[in-house]
Amino acid sequence: MRTTIDRSGRVVVPKELRDRVGLVPGEVEITVSGNALVLEPVTIDVLVEVDGRLLLPGGGPELSTDDIRELRLGDQR
């Protein structure tokens, strides 16, 4: 997915990508990896209770069935 950098160095991260990785308005950590920039949300230590469940504010990345299976099985494969 392509986007542009304006003269001030600002980049708009498309909504689809923000939703996919859980980026929400606020601080992000930017690091360099090879010739790429990596944006990561700043770790949030606060959880919110919704309907008896603890959730991260703003949601998080959407997980596929394969993602969940990998998280559950880990190194057992």
UniProtKB/TrEMBL annotation:
PROSITE patterns this protein is in? SPOVT_ABRB
**What SUPFAM superfamilies does this protein's entry cite?**
AbrB/MazE/MraZ-like
GO molecular function term, any single one? DNA binding
On whether Ribonucleoprotein is a keyword of this UniProt record, the answer is no
Q: Does the keyword ATP-binding apply?
A: no
Recorded hits in SMART domains, A to Z, give: SpoVT_AbrB
Q: Which Gene3D superfamilies match?
A: 2.10.260.10
| Pfam families linked to this entry | MazE_antitoxin
Q: What is this protein called?
A: SpoVT-AbrB domain-containing protein
